[in-house]
Recover the amino acids of this structure.
């Protein structure tokens, strides 16, 4: 069997994103034992850096061994016991998945639904809490990767406390791309993934848990349904000063995450957020010039994941295949009811650059000219250039 040499790809899909060479070099660092004192300092560094990015002082802030989906499952299985009611916002694939995990735990998922591409209104969450009796938690997706919709969170934490419910947030796509204010927004359990705006290979799930949530977990009537994802067991491994064996951590991935987090720290979160906004604005301007429209309404779009409706005269699958085969560019298609109807274009972390935006728009123009659905070359590139010539966008809001 020959050595595998992957083709060159420009990763502009919904994940994974491109990875900085420093992160790849970190993965080639010689292994240490997962209880080696030198490796434990790496774990401590990660906890410190993650607290900064999550904007939290939570003691329990770790990198769970597993992808973002493991973070989702861990958040639910540790909190939800059989019979518990959980209000779940469902407006895309990942809200649907949250509800499914709740039900697999024996919980009751109270679905608060919105059309795909729309947000879950806070008033609808409040209504569900008021009419549903005791509710264990509210679970929302901050950045719905299947639709590009950005869910407001700032008012939900206080609402959860009024109803004595925990607040669980999926920040898989949002962390390090837009503000995630765990403490200020009253989030009790927040999880993410490494392969999106953190620009690290997939394999770890950053998680942070409030003291309020930890107290709830310690009062469980039944054991956690998962041994591997049991926070009460994992805590012993991540507790500074008393690291105890739980499982063999993915050493090289931990090295990679530490380096990726260092890159985030060096850039600074305000600058990183501004970069994502600016490149998104240029991409959206260029796509609009080609006749594409955004799926989420104005003010609800994500800057790191642009979801556009594909015009009926353009063959979704054919164009995506041409981008991949002729240009080495990967973008994402639609999921579920949006299959064949939308494109999902990721400008996440290392993938979010002006050069990548212009490369993609140029490729789409060339495909459009050859296919006959574009008659005027340069319109998308000119629109993007105008966006880049403007002053930086206003400060990122909630």
């Amino acid at each position: 069997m020959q050595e595998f040499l992957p083709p060159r790809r420009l990763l502009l899909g919904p994940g994974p994103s491109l990875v900085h060479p420093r992160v790849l070099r970190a993965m080639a660092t010689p292994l240490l034992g997962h209880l080696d004192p030198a490796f434990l300092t790496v774990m401590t560094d990660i906890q410190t850096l993650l607290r900064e990015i999550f904007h939290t002082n939570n003691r329990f802030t770790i990198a769970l061994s597993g992808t973002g989906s493991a973070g989702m499952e861990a958040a639910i299985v540790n909190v939800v016991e059989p019979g518990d009611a959980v209000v779940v916002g469902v407006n895309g694939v990942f809200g649907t998945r949250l509800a499914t995990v709740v039900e697999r735990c024996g919980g009751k998922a109270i679905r608060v639904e919105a059309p795909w591409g729309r947000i879950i209104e806070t008033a609808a969450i409040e209504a569900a809490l008021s009419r549903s009796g005791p509710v264990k938690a509210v679970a929302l997706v901050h950045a719905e990767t299947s639709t590009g919709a950005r869910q407001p969170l700032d008012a939900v934490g206080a609402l959860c406390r009024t109803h004595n419910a925990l607040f669980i947030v999926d920040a898989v796509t949002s962390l390090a791309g837009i503000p995630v204010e765990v403490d200020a927004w009253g989030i009790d359990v927040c999880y993410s993934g490494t392969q999106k705006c953190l620009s690290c290979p997939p394999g770890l799930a950053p998680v942070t848990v409030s003291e309020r949530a930890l107290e709830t977990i310690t009062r469980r009537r039944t054991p956690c349904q998962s041994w591997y994802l049991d926070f009460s067991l994992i805590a012993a491994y991540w507790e500074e000063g008393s690291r105890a064996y739980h499982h063999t951590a993915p050493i090289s991935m931990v090295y990679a995450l530490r380096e990726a987090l260092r890159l985030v720290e060096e850039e600074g979160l305000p600058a990183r957020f501004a970069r994502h906004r600016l490149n998104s604005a240029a991409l959206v301007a260029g796509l609009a010039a080609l006749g594409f429209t955004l799926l989420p309404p104005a003010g609800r779009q994500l800057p790191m994941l642009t979801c556009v409706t594909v015009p009926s005269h353009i063959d979704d699958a054919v164009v995506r295949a041409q981008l991949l085969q002729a240009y080495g560019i990967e973008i994402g298609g639609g999921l579920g009811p949006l299959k064949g109807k939308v494109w999902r274009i990721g400008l996440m972390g290392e993938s979010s650059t002006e050069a990548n935006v212009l490369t993609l728009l140029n490729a789409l123009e060339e495909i459009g000219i050859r296919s006959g659905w574009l008659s005027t070359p340069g319109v998308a590139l000119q629109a993007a250039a105008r966006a880049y010539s403007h002053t930086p966008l206003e400060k990122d809001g909630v």
